[in-house]
Amino acid sequence: DGLGSEKIPVPNLIGKDYSETGGLLESMELQMGKPIFDETSSEPAGTIIKQKPAFVEGDSIQKGRIIDVWV
To answer: Most buried of the four, 48, 55, 56, 61, by CB within 10 Å?
Structure first.
């Protein structure tokens, strides 16, 4: 299934630029899901406003998992 047994902290992508997060996730052995565009956001274009799984201090995720983002 492409998932590793090793778990790592869930990264906090909120407020980061979408174009810069792919490399970050790749370096953590995670995958970026397809972005969901929120036309109602007041943030600058390309800014991540939500992620799933959500960032919670201390939570972990299996390597190889997909993180979905709202931009």
So the answer is: 48
